Amino acid sequence: MFIHRGTTDFLHRLTLWEHLDFVAAVEELPQQEFQKHAKQLLSTYKLTEHAHSYPTTLSKGMQQKAMLILAMITNSAVYVIDEPFMGLDPNAMKLFLESIEKERAKGAGILMSTHVLDTAEKVCARFIMIHEGRLHVAGTLDEIRDQCQLPLGSLYDCYHKIAEGTGNE
After folding, report:
1. Which of 33, 35, 48, 129 has the most other CB atoms within 10 Å of its CB?
2. Are residues 14 and 54 in contact, defined by beta-carbon separation less than 8 angstroms?
């Protein structure tokens, strides 16, 4: 999607609720279903009292939760999530992980990019490891362990073996 600079300025002038309403309109979500789902997500992520605040006035963690809510309001078949844990406190991380698990249980595909390898190891079924812009290994944790020759290694251990093998971290 191409966003013109004026559009970006426009988006900064919307409250969190107006952002949600905008996404619902673009996605043509039924109004009653949207209202119910939006209120539930705002409550779950403890942002109900901030629904009519501008995202720029929220803390980094609250902004991150707002972005997650905006993504989840659509009930997508596929979610592409980049660094979802940045700025989230442990409780918000738990809520997010529970939310994506619910989406996965409904059949949604989830592609997540993260540097938080210990959490990724706990929640992801398959991995690709990129270092210095190059794909080094891919597969399940056991397959990556085999490829890295670390039968009991963590994802973190495997990444460091790859990084050491390329000469840089």
Report:
1. 129
2. yes
